[in-house]
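Lecture 7, part 2: worked example. A protein chain together with glutamic acid.
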Amino acid sequence: MTVITRFAPSPTGYLHVGGARTALFSYLFARANKGDFILRIEDTDLERSTEDSVNAIFEGMKWLGMENDGEVYFQTKRFPQYKEKIQQLLDDDKAYYCTCSKQRLDEMREAQMKAGGKPRYDGKCRNLGLTNSDDAVVRFRNPQGGDVTFDDYVRGVITTSNQELDDLIIARPDGTPTYNFTVVIDDIEMNISHVIRGDDHINNTPRQINIYHALRAEIPKFAHLPMILGDDGARLSKRHGAVSVMEYAENGYLPEAVLNYLVRLGWSYEDKELFTKEEMIKLFDLKKVNKAPSAFNTSKLNWINQHYIQQADSERLVELLKSRLCVLDIVVPHTINLINVVEMFKERAVTINEMADLALFMFKDIETYDEKAVKKVFKQSAIVPFETLINKMSAVGDWASANLHDLIADTVAELEVGFGKVGQPLRVALTGQSSGPANDAIMHVLGQAESIRRTENALQFLIAKLKKQGLI
Ligand code: GLU
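Predicted complex, written out as C-alpha cells:
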C-alpha cells in the first residue's frame, strides 16, 4: 500500500506544539514507509483564517525541517470539487435540503438537553424532498441503523451506533461546505492512506466514515493522538508559557531539540531520549503511540536543548548568537571573536538566549559592579594585585590563554597571597560580578587592551571608593 499522510491545520493562529507534534507523527510515518506527506491548509472558515497564520504554519514547518511533498493544498481553492460532490450526494439521495430555522433548532436542542439527552437533529426535513432555496442547508443522510466501527492505531477498536449520529450539515445556506465534509473529500481525492490527527477529532470519525461509504470510497486508517497537557496536568495552553513553535525559536531553542522533544510526547522507544531525525524515521512506530495524554515538561526540553547546543557546530552557534545579539541591539566589538564566546559558554548554556545573556558583559562597558562583590573584594588589599596584573598584562606579547593563566599564577606567587586575593578582584573587574568563567578565558576573549582597560577602571573605582571612605 502506498502510504500518504497529511497535516491539515486550520490557519487560525500560529503553529502550536500540539499541531507540530501531530505534523511530526504524520511526517515520520510517511517517511518511515517511503510514502508522501501532504500539507493541506484548511482555510474554509473565512472569518478566522488569516494569511499571517498560513505563513506562521509554513515558517514553523520549515524551521522544524518537516518538508511536505508536492504542492500545498488550500481548501478555499477547492470549492468546485466540494460543490460537485455535494451535488452527487443530493442526486444519489444521500443528502437533502433542510430549511429548519435557527429558532426551531435552538428550541429543539434546549428541550433535548433539558430532558437529559444529547442534542441532535430530529430529521424533520429528511423526507420532505425540499429543493434548494436561499435559507436551505444540505444535510448528509446518515444511516439510521447499525454501527460504525474502526480500528484506531492508538485507541484500538471503536464502535459507534448510528443512532447516536444525526444528519450532519455538509453545506451552509451560501453553499460553502463544512469541515466534516471537506476533510473527507480531500482525504479521498488526495489518496490519504492514514489519517493521523489529534483526538479532539475522534468523535467526527464515525460521521466521516459514513460519508466515505456514501461516496463508495475506500476508508483510510485512523490514528488519533492523545492531547498534550501542561506541567500542571491541564490541557497545554498559552498560560503554560510558549506554545507556539516559533516562540521556541525566538527563545533560543534549536529546531532539532524541539523536534526531538516533540517526538517523545506520546511516543517512546525503549528508554532512549535522544533521536536524530534519521533515527526517528527509522524507529517511529504509530502502534507504539501512547493512549494516555502526554505532559509537557520544560526541564526535559531544556536538557535536550542543552545537549544539542553542546553537540552543535560552533560556527552555526555563532550565527544564532549573532541574531540574538541583534535582537538585543548589541554591537559586538570587532576585537571579540564570537567563536571564542560560543566555545566559552557552549557547555553550560541551556538556550542561545541564555548564552547571549551570559556573554553580555563582554560586549558592553561595565556600568556597575555587583554591590556584594564590591563589599567583599574591592578592598585596600586588592590595590597591589590590580597594579601587578596591569603591569604583567601590558607586558604580554602573545595573548594566548595559557600565557594568561601563567600571568595570574605568577602574580599570586610573586605577591605571596592566596589565589582568591588576585582571582576574585580580577573577576569582578572583568565581569562586574563575582561569578563567571575562568579569568584567563575571559581575558583571552576580551583581548589585551580591553582586559587592561577593565582592570584599570576597577582600580580607579576602588581608589575612589577608599578615598571616599577616608581610608587612603
Ligand atoms: N483542520 C483540522 C484542525 O486543524 C484538522 C482536521 C483533520 O486533521 O482531520 O483541527
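Residues 8-10, 42, 183, 197, 201 surround glutamic acid (CB under 6 Å). The mean pLDDT is 96. Keep this in mind for problem set question 3.
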